[in-house]
Structures are given as C-alpha cells and as structure tokens.
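Postdoc handover notes: sequence design on the structure in folder B. Input tokens:
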C-alpha cells in the first residue's frame, strides 16, 4: 500500500486534510482549501506546542487557539475530534454545516467545545486574539508571584490573507506591537489566494515590513507544505521572543494535493467534487475512504488526552501551593474565574435625588464607572481616544502599557473597530469584564464587533456618549439619528438610554450582572435633572411608570434619555389643565420586552391608545409603543451644526412641543 510508505507525521497531517475534504463534500458546502494548505502548521502547533486538556476545554491556564480564518473551520473541527475533545465525535464532522450541529460553517464558541471565540468576519479572530493576550498579560501581572506563576499561557491564532487585509486587524495588531504582547503568536497562512482571485490583484504590500513597523517579530517559512521542521523552529523562535508579539508567515498552497484546483481560488470556497477528491487521494497516497482515519494517526493524536491531563495536574499542584501561600489572591482569582461579582458590590452604586445638581448622563456614567470599578476590580477597559469626553478613565489605577500590565486603563487610540474586537477577546478569556467607549455615531465603525459580542454571548460594556443632536456644533456627522434603532434591532444586545443618574446606575448594575451578553449605554452630552420616581431597581425592568400611575390616564408620555425630563415637565403642565397624564420611562426596549405581559400592561395599558414618545432619534421602532393613534417627537433627518440647545429647540425637543403634540392627540 502506498500509505505504508508515509511517515506518521504525514498520516496525521493528511488526516486533517481529508476530514476537511470529506466533510465539505458531504455538506455540499464549505471551504476545503485552507485546511488542506494549513494542515502542516496546524499539526505542528497542536502536536508540539499547544497546551490544552481535551477533557477539560475550560481549564483556565490553557493556551488559547483562534482560527481567525473561520471559513476554514473544518481544520479546527478535525483537530478537536482527532485530539479527543469531549463531546466532538466523528458523527459531528459528518454533520458539518447542518441544523443544530456542533460543527457550524464558522467557529462558534457557544456551539463547539474547544472553540474560544466566534470567528467568521475576517479580521475579527486575530483581533480577538490580541484581546486574549491583553487578558493574559493583565491577569498574570495581577496574580502571579515571583515563586508561583499561576497564569502563564500563550495565545495562538491562525490567520488568512483576508484577516491580514481587513482594517480591524491592522488596528488591533498595531496595539499589540505597541504593548509588546510577547505571548501572542500568529501563524499567517500566506497562500497568495483569496476568494475571488490571486492576491496580486489587490494585495501586494510587504506584510513583513508592515508588521515589523508595528513592533512585531516576524519569521518566514518558505515551504509550509512539507517543511514541518522549519515550522517547528519558527514557533520555537517566536516563543523565545518575549518582548513583542510574533507573526510567522508560512507560505502554503491552498488546496494542497488537489490535481487541478490546488493553488487556485477554486479551492477556496466550494467542495472539490468527487473526481477532484479521487485525484487528491491518489496524489497524496491516501487509500482510506471518506471519514476513515488510520488508527496509527488517531492513536498519536489521542496522546493529547494524557498530555493535557498531565499539564492540568501539574497546574493543579501549583494552584494548591498558591492557595496555601496566597489565600486572598487565590480566592479573588477563583471568584473571577467563576464569573461571580464581589459580595456587596452593588452598595457602591451611586444614587441621586432631584435636588442634586443636573449633569449629563455621560458625567453620571463616569461617576458610576469609577465607583463600581473600585468595588469590581475585574472591570478593565478604555476609550477610542475620547476618554476626556466620554468620562471613561478610571481614576484609581494607571495605564495598561508595556511593563505596566497590572493597570486597568486601556488606551485604544482612534481605533474603534479594533477596540471592539479586543474587548471581545478580553471578555472571552475570562476573569475580566471589558468596556469600550466612544461616541454613539462611531458605533458604526465597530458594529461588527458589537454584533459578535451579542452573537457569542460575550459580556462587554459599550459606553456610547454624545447620543443625539444635542452634541451641537460638531454637526450631523457627529449627531446620531438612526443608531439607537439600528442597535435595538440587534438580537441579544441590551441597549440603555438612561434619563438621569439613577438610571445610569441601574444600567451599570444590569451590565455587570449580565454575564452572558453585552450591554450598550447611550449617554448624553447635555445636562439632565435627576427625576422624582426614578430608581436603580425600576431601571432593570426596562420601562416603568415614572409618575401618574395611580389611575387610568388620558394620555401616556414615553421618554428616554435626555428627553425624559421633557415628558415630566410637559405632564405637569397638562395636569395643571386637568388632564390625567402618565409618564413612562423606557430606558431599555429589550428589558421591557422581557417582562411578563401583566407587568407590561400595568405600565402601558392597552386601553390607553393616546400616547406620545419623545426621543432625539429616529421614529423608527416606536410604532410598537405608540400604535396608530399615537405620535412621536423624534427626528427623521440628519442633524445640523449649531449649539446643542439650539439644535434641540429647532428639531422640536421642547416642553412646549411635547405639550402641543399631546393636546393634538387628545383633541
């Protein structure tokens, strides 16, 4: 048999290739080219370097592996099966890309044991890996002792040409180089092919020089198809470079072994087809049928089970010593790993009274963030060059910089998208709660990352200030209009637009207690008063009666954010004219919709159809609450450059206009 002449390493490498080829063919969908080309480097990494325990995928000190080229997901699924990951069977590979399978088209952390982050949109995975490296560096600096390195792991990513092209990766990798994250190693599958064509039609820059200019160490492996010793040596060299991240360019052939489709974009995103697969089997000397793996190769891969158990056992011994010598630190780390908040942390949340001085909700946010950060030390984040404006700087810690990884203020520069993806990586690592801050209009730059935090169930706090035309002089480019509606449309994202200080505190309480998803706060630049009837507890309901709940009203005024006080003042004027008016605060659509029908009816009784919603954003989406008989004070055009108070007045956000709208409906 031709197979008998193959080395064990070749058998192992070809096992990855053909599991990928066969799964893609069976599904009639997928990307076989990347797994076929990248199999040698993946084998070397997983067999010789990656520290993991297949029987405990969540062991905290494991190395993290991110398949950034998520379209090549069968590479990772093959490795998870071959190395014996709990819950991944051969049958799961046969269900690739099928309904409710553990092997979806792109890696998803919530679907597949052993997948660290949800990758798919190119550039996100490598940027998440930067965030994972942030987290390891910070936690190691906080918890490690000279005689006990309890947190000591690497982050590895396998990236494609598309990942390197995407702008988000440039943002994140620039930061990784600046920070000298030496435990981040990226293997770049440099195969010169993308989905449409050869890369020379659009991508001819010198990637080595670019990454060196970022401050990375760069290695080049000329023959990534056959020279596994060179791959091994490059990873060894990267691990020896401790003061900067490493990029290993590995020149491979996409679709390696396919007679006519190798080194072609035709191998990128479609099954090879029966004839091409038969030719590939002959070319690579593979005499096994679909999904058939030689026992010799499987036995070799399954050594990872004993190896992983040994690694974790050694770590557990170290952990026992650590707990004995440093019990307080150990208890703190255990709490964080478990995702539990400190006992009594909520007592630190500020509360506000109507007589307190009015302030912008961004200012309340700064107060609340700093208060809870003192109580919850895992809060870890920063701003995209706007910390002075969005009040996101933590006062009782320094800056997270090279050699100062114990500090908690992250400086992202003008890199919103990179910030979002890095925060997602931090959140997926465990032990930390990330936050990222910018202006609400710039959420457009990081929408992909926000969406992935929601999809992957990653706890992150998105702090978005300057949330309306009240921004003023900066004009329509900086004045969000449609953003709230667009973000509210995103499943699993909780969006808050708090109306005063108590609602800001309430929003943070939800965000910190919500360990399985992201929360976004939309905050004002202009000042707002603290209102009678607001509270932290009521905010958690998403919508509640602020005033006028004693009897069935003639009309309901619904407000959010900086317009809530307009509703309260308009209600007082209308009540003075004999009208029964209820004011409802609606800081979060999502949380209100999560309440039971009885509660929602108690706030917005169906019998009361005369309603006015007031919000300095688009009317889109408000129909669910005002119905056909109601109206809105909203804005469906772009803003204008003028002082903020003038903008608000010109666009109708005044007490008089709210009263006029209400009277028109009542008449």
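Designed sequence:
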């Amino acid at each position: 048999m031709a197979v008998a002449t193959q080395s064990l390493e070749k058998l192992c490498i070809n096992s990855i290739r053909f599991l990928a080829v066969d799964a893609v063919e069976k599904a009639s969908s997928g990307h076989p080219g990347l797994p076929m080309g990248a199999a040698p480097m993946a084998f070397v990494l997983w067999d010789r370097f990656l520290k993991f325990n297949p029987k405990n995928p969540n062991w905290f000190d494991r190395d993290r592996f991110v398949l950034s080229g998520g379209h090549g997901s069968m590479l990772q699924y093959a490795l998870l099966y071959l190395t014996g990951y709990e819950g991944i069977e051969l049958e799961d590979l046969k269900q690739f890309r099928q309904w409710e399978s553990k092997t979806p088209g792109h890696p998803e952390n919530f679907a597949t044991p052993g997948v660290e982050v949800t990758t798919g949109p190119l550039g996100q995975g490598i940027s998440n890996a930067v965030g994972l490296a942030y987290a390891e560096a910070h936690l190691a600096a906080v918890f490690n002792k000279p005689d006990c390195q309890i947190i000591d792991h690497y982050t590895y990513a396998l990236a494609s040409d598309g990942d390197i092209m995407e702008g988000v990766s440039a943002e994140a990798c620039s930061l990784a180089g600046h920070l000298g994250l030496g435990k981040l190693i990226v293997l770049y599958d440099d195969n010169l092919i993308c989905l449409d064509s050869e890369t020379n039609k659009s991508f001819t820059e010198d990637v080595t020089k670019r990454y060196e200019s970022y401050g990375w160490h760069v290695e080049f492996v000329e023959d990534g198809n056959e020279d596994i010793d060179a791959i091994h040596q490059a990873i060894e060299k990267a691990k020896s470079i401790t003061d900067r991240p490493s990029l290993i360019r590995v020149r491979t052939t996409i679709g390696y072994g396919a007679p006519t489709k190798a080194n072609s974009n035709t191998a990128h995103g479609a099954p090879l087809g029966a004839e091409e697969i038969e030719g590939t089997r002959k070319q690579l000397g593979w005499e096994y049928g679909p999904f058939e793996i030689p026992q010799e190769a499987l036995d070799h891969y399954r050594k990872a089970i004993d190896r992983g158990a040994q690694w974790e056992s050694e770590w557990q011994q170290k952990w026992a010593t650590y707990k004995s010598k440093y019990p307080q630190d150990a208890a703190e780390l255990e709490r964080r790993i478990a995702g539990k908040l400190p006992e009594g942390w909520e007592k630190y949340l500020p509360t506000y009274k109507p007589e307190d001085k009015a302030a912008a909700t961004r200012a309340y946010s700064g107060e609340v963030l700093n208060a809870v950060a003192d109580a919850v030390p895992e809060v870890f984040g920063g701003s995209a060059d706007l910390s002075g404006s969005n009040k996101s700087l933590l006062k009782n810690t320094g800056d997270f910089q090279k050699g100062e990884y114990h500090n908690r203020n992250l400086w992202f520069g003008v890199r919103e998208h990179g910030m979002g993806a890095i925060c997602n990586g931090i959140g997926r690592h465990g032990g930390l709660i990330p936050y990222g801050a910018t202006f609400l209009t710039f959420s457009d730059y990081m929408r992909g990352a926000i969406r992935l935090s929601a999809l992957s169930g990653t706890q992150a706090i998105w702090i978005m200030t300057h949330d309306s035309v009240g921004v003023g002089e900066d004009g329509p480019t900086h004045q969000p209009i449609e953003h709230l509606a667009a973000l509210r449309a995103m499943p699993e994202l909780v969006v808050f637009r708090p109306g005063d200080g108590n609602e800001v505190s309430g929003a943070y309480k939800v965000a910190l207690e919500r360990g399985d998803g992201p929360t976004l706060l939309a905050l004002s630049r202009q000042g707002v008063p603290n209102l009678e009837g607001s509270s932290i507890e009521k905010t958690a309901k998403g919508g509640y009666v602020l005033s006028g709940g004693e009897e069935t009203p003639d009309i309901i005024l619904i407000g959010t954010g900086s317009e809530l006080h307009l509703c309260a003042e308009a209600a007082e004027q209308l009540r003075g004219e004999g009208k029964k008016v209820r004011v409802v605060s609606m800081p979060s659509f999502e949380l209100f919709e999560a309440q039971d029908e009885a509660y929602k009816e108690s706030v917005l009784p169906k019998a009361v159809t005369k309603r006015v919603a007031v919000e300095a954003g688009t009317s889109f989406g408000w129909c669910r609450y005002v119905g056909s008989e109601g109206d809105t004070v909203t804005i469906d055009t772009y803003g204008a450059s003028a002082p903020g108070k003038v903008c608000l007045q010109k666009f109708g956000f005044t007490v008089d206009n709210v009263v006029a709208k209400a009277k028109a409906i009542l008449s």
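Context for whoever picks this up: The first helix runs from residue 8 to 27. Don't rerun without checking with the PI first.
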